[in-house]
Fold:
Amino acid sequence: MQVRKTLRRHGVTLEHGPFVARETTRVCAAGCRKDGALVTERAEVLTSRLPPKGTVGYDVIVFVGLARFVEHRQREEIRASLAQRGIDLSAGEISGLCRRVLAYLEALHETRAPELRAALEQDGGWPLHVDATGEDGRGTLLVVLAGWRRWVLGAWKVPTERAEVILPRLREVVSRFGAPCAIMRNLGRAVTEACQDLVAELGGDIPMLACHLHFLKDVGGDVRVRQALERLRRLLHPVDSQVPLEKVARTLRARAAIFAELRDALRLQLKPAGRNGTGSPLLTREQATAELRDIQAAVAALTAALAERRPERGPAQDERQAIDIVLAHLKRHGARLFGHAIQLPASAGGSIRLVDRTNNCLEGLFDDMKRGERRRSGRKVLAQDLEQLPPAAALAANLRLADSAAILCGSLDTLPQAFAQLDASCRRRSSIVARAAARVADATDCDVVSASLPIADRGIIRTEQMDRRILAAA
Structure:
């Protein structure tokens, strides 16, 4: 190697604060080239701390990223914390570093995918939980999560919940982490069709399970609605016996009783024992398996009982309609309500492991993200915030889990070094950030339709006839 030039370089890190370094770069004396450029050697003490063409160190980038996407702090709060360490960054620089840290985090998950897959295979497989969230029809975020590990395996912004949009994302996760041992989904038609197509493509006997909580909500037992109705019942109790309201009150009580029977048969606990801070022990695997069999038998007995006592004619029209609603949902989704006991392969011990009966792990993730965004923005309606929030923000949830953080970077203290290793292969420019920007600019055909279109326009634009007109004009 021979000296090419010596230059002054400004930098700022948490380790050293602001500094000016004089760096000597060297090139191969024989003129060797790599990717069309001379083989160059730079000072390792700087390349391990500063990104290509950047002055803000990796440790500052990690500090900003954790504060923004894990602690959900505001830009001015982050600036104030850095100022206490002698680092002065503008609000615009903080925003730029937030985008940069997500690009690194996405690349890190992609690079460590083989190690993550090996850990999932060591568990004997992984149940795929899939769901989407949004606000007022905007900012729809689709997330795939490994149920037993609670790892976020993929997150994407989608224009709307449609099967043709969801299926390519599920294929991407399967190609990277292997086929799941089970699928837990909500009752939406788009997610259901996408999961059915995925199982058909894999050609395996993969149980596709329906979320029990979504099933109850679909029947009409949304928790918040039931709480509101209970408060309304207490308010109207003094007058519910009066003649104008007596019939309505009797009808509501009858419907509520039928739904209570279904809820009792499913025995759905929103907060499982042992996770609510009471110290009560969790059920053993054998006890949980036996309870699932009892629940399945109770649902079958309820189905038979409702069919038997369903009035065929007469004045009991409302009771008949209520029973028909429950029986129709049980007929449509009953086959997907059970099958949570998964037989592990011999390499993983050969025992039985249970899949969650609900998608609460994903619902909890969405609630945490929205709560954090409300804390950061101070807004109750998050339509604009979720629309601007990059999908890779969901991957930051993996940094809270010790097992995933250990595979990704060892620990949060060594996360800056993991980011530096991603840039080690190309120091001429930050290829990680460039690739992330290229993915945003290169929107696919299923991403170009905005979810913010008026409902009246969606029925016209999202049709095959319109597609043919556009292709003909093109």
